[in-house]
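G.,

No rush on this.
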Amino acid sequence: MISKENIKNWFKTGLKPTQEQFWAWMDSFWHKDEMIPISKIEGMQPIYNAINSQNTQLAKAKIYATGELQVFKFAGNTNNGALEIGDFVVGIVGNQFIRGIYIGGDIVSLASFNVYDSIEF
């Protein structure tokens, strides 16, 4: 990169830059239609890395579909493949987003849960 002082010296009153100096001057600026690489922008790489780190975390996020529950096992309940009485659940049951305790029965019925709070859709 050419210093601003060198560029100023090329254009002093009565002086003309050489063709090479003129080209070097033109090449020292980005044209509005040129893409500027992130690596050329001071301080941008840490921001870029932070965004990529967040995107990686979001890609690992679990999205629960309607009828799918996030289950927190009650102490003593050991069957990780099934919902057991006493398990705490978060998810959509019927037309409500609930947080509550499973008390047995059909998992698509609100009557099967001791609901602590809910949001109706």
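When you get to it, here's the other one too:
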Amino acid sequence: MLRRRFAVTLLGLALVAGCSSTEHTPEKTPAEALAAARASLAKATSVHLVLASTEVPAGQNGVTAGDGDGEFSATEAKFAGTITGTVNGLTGNIAIICVGDQAWWKLFTPDYTPADLASVNAPNPCTLFHPETGIASLVAATTDPVAKGQTRSGKDVVTSYAGKLPGAPISELLHLGDGTGTYDVTFGITDAGELRQATMTGPFFAGATSTYTLTLSNYGKAVTITAPQ
């Protein structure tokens, strides 16, 4: 009887081991992880975004921070939140709403007024929320990605992937840099393939090395963004 029980136990352990090896999912390569992050952005409906920066030269024109919600769309992306930037030496926090190519801001007024972003060379935040040419383009343009281990981003554990990023997509999305430099970039990606963080370091401004970080959260959380009345 004891021999029979022992044999059954060994058989059970063998079956468990066999199932474990069969069901094991191999780790993604860096290229596969970045592709998964692009796919998650392509199918996302909305996300909360925080932009932060460090080592920005004083008095330089450009956006330095942002915080708000965005809706992804290939035809009419939307954003509502605040941006911080400097124009002609003046730095301020500005509430802004963008719907497609149109934008409204509270610039020294209690109410939203139409914003001419091009006149101050400010980026339209909506461009970040195009499924392919927005944030996803930063991932797509990255070369030579390598895994750098796991870290924590808020409540999420992410795997970090480092690579090189050409300046063109940064210039197009943030209106920073001359579009020709090369940046060091590190992405934080969850096991589910969601991009949680993108940290870029390089020549955002002539003669300086600055760092900009995009942090994403609340994938798919319902938001309501409408043009001001």
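The chain has one domain: 28-217. Residues 28-217 form a domain with the outer membrane lipoprotein receptor (LolB), chain A fold (CATH 2.50.20.20).

Enjoy the weekend,
O.
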